[in-house]
């Protein structure tokens, strides 16, 4: 299989082969971290960093990792990258760590990085793998932020609450109250709401794709 | 076949060794910075539960070692003014929805809460984490309260017949928090003489 072009990799990562909305991978952090849009966004970004670093490393060493031991090696690399990010952020970006720190260990439980290492980074050159890691991570961020926004509006009546804690005081302007707090439906903040909203957004995405005449491509989506 | 198995083992072993070394190096480089950050956090949280107006010493270094009701070693930070103890601060523990929660509790010389802040917890983001002062005012309501005010049976969340609000979607977290603060006040009441003694 020839290495796909960068435009293809970007489109796949963000939309056409989106890790959450098409491949339905990484459901554990998706359900756990999308009670608010801000949490989803933070989790997505942390995951993108780990995915980019892991894809880069696996692609670099791809000729030395034999088939038989590749899975433990991938897990080792993902777990090591998670720990690097965790330690470095704790030491040098402590304010951000206080907000994101809760999410970082959860990245190990995400099978999306592992899936991309197996199906992309282990076969392709270094640079396309890095781009794939970055854009799959950003696609993950997009999906989590979207699910988080819907759950937050329906469940708490706010949008991007606490964004200024994550991104700095300048982002106070994006924090909104869409409707009074007591109108929120608790179900949407709880785990069942996560499944419902994720399912509805997957349906919505497919309808958009079918309307655009691209529905057939769904069959080509690979799952691991 | 044997030969191949050996090669795989060696490859896996080399990766483990390489990343193990890299992790050890990262830990070594970040170790001091992480400790320093933890110390700053403690000073910040101490400043929030002991107002600077009531002391002329440095409570972070003016400490005594005691044992709490569970037999744990407890460091008590003391605020002194004019040679008299005006307040103490110490850690209290509560059990939350997802594990242990750690708080810093400040108590004045009359047994009233000066302030309480969460130091660490694993509660659900968006639900239980409203005990953090950054995410809500809930934890501030305890300032000025003592064992008699409200009366003992009201030291509980509303669901349990007490006077403190639980959160939407989270009752266990506030319940554990209220119990932790109460246990801290019990500890203060039981050891008041020792805590206020100036040595």
H-E order of chain B: HEEEEEHH
Number of strands of chain A: 2
Major beta sheet summary of chain A: 2 strands, antiparallel
Query: Biggest interface: chains and residue counts?
Result: A-B, 35 and 28 residues
**Share of helical residues of chain B:** 25-40%
How many H/I helices of chain A? 9
Mean pLDDT of chain A: 86
Oligomer: heterodimer
What ranges of chain A have pLDDT less than 50 throughout 5 or more consecutive residues? none
Q: Helix segment count of chain B?
A: 3
The string of secondary-structure elements of chain A, in order, is HHHHHHHEHEH
Q: Could you tell me the number of beta strands of chain B?
A: 5
Low-confidence stretches of chain B: none
**Shape category of chain B:** globular
In percent, how much strand structure appears in the residues of chain A? Answer: under 5%
| Radius of gyration of chain A, in angstroms, nearest whole number | 18 Å
- The amount of helix of chain A comes to 55-70%
Helix-strand category of chain A = mainly alpha
Strand content of chain B: 15-25%
N-end to C-end Cα span of chain A: 18 Å
**How many strands, what sense, and barrel or not for the largest sheet of chain B?**
5 strands, antiparallel
Explained architecture:
- The complex is a heterodimer of chains A (224) and B (199).
- With 224 residues, chain A is mainly α.
- Chain A has one domain.
- Chain A has nine helices and two strands, in the order αααααααβαβα.
- In chain A, helix 1 runs parallel beside helix 7.
- Chain B is α+β, with helices and mostly antiparallel strands.
- Chain B has one domain.
- Chain B contains three helices and five strands.
- The radius of gyration of chain B is 22 Å and the shape is globular.
- The termini of chain B are far apart.
- The model of chain B has no long low-confidence stretch (mean pLDDT 88).
- Chain A binds chain B through residues 32-33, 35-36, 39, 61, 64-66, 68-69, 72-73, 76-77, 80, 83-84, 87-88, 90-92, 94, 102-103, 152, 156, 162, 165, 181, 184, 186, 189-190, and chain B through 4, 7-9, 11-12, 15-16, 19, 22-23, 26-27, 29-30, 33-34, 37, 40, 122, 124-127, 134-135, 168-169.
């Amino acid at each position: 299989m020839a290495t796909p072009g960068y435009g293809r990799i970007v489109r796949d990562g963000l939309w056409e082969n989106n890790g959450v909305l098409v491949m339905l991978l990484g459901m554990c952090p998706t359900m756990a971290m999308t009670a608010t849009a801000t949490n989803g966004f933070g989790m997505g970004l942390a995951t993108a960093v780990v995915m980019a670093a892991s894809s880069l490393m696996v692609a670099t060493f791809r000729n030395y990792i034999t088939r038989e031991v590749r899975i433990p090696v991938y897990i080792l690399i993902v777990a090591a990258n998670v720990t690097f990010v965790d330690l470095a952020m704790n030491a040098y970006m402590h304010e951000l760590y206080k907000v994101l720190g809760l999410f970082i260990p959860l990245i190990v439980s995400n099978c999306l990085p592992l899936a991309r290492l197996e199906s992309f980074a282990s076969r392709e050159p270094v640079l396309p793998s890095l781009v794939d890691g970055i854009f799959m991570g950003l696609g993950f961020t997009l999906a989590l932020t979207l699910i988080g926004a819907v759950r937050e509006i329906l469940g708490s009546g706010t949008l991007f609450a606490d964004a200024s804690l994550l991104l700095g005081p300048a982002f106070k302007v994006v924090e909104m109250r869409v409707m009074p707090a007591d109108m929120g439906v608790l179900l949407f903040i709880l785990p069942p709401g996560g499944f419902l909203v994720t399912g509805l957004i997957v349906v919505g995405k497919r309808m958009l794709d079918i309307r655009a005449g691209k529905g057939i491509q769904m069959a080509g989506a690979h799952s691991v | 076949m044997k030969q191949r198995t050996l090669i795989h083992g060696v490859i896996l072993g080399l990766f483990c060794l390489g990343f193990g070394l890299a992790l050890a190096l990262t830990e070594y480089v970040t170790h001091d910075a992480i400790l320093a950050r933890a110390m700053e956090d403690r000073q910040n949280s101490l400043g929030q539960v002991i107002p600077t107006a009531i002391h002329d010493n440095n409570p972070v270094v003016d400490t005594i070692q005691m044992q709490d009701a569970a037999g744990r070693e407890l460091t008590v930070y003391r605020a002194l003014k004019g040679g008299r103890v005006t307040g103490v601060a110490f850690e209290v523990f509560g059990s939350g929805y997802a594990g242990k929660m750690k708080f810093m509790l400040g108590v004045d010389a009359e047994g009233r809460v000066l302030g309480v802040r969460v130091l660490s917890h694993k509660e659900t983001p968006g639900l239980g984490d409203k005990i953090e002062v950054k995410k809500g005012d809930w934890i501030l309501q305890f300032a000025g309260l003592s064992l008699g005010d409200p009366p003992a049976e009201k030291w509980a969340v509303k669901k349990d017949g007490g006077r403190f609000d639980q959160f939407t979607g989270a009752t266990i977290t506030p319940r554990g928090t209220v119990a932790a603060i109460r246990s801290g006040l019990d500890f203060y009441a039981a050891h008041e003489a020792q805590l206020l003694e100036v040595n």
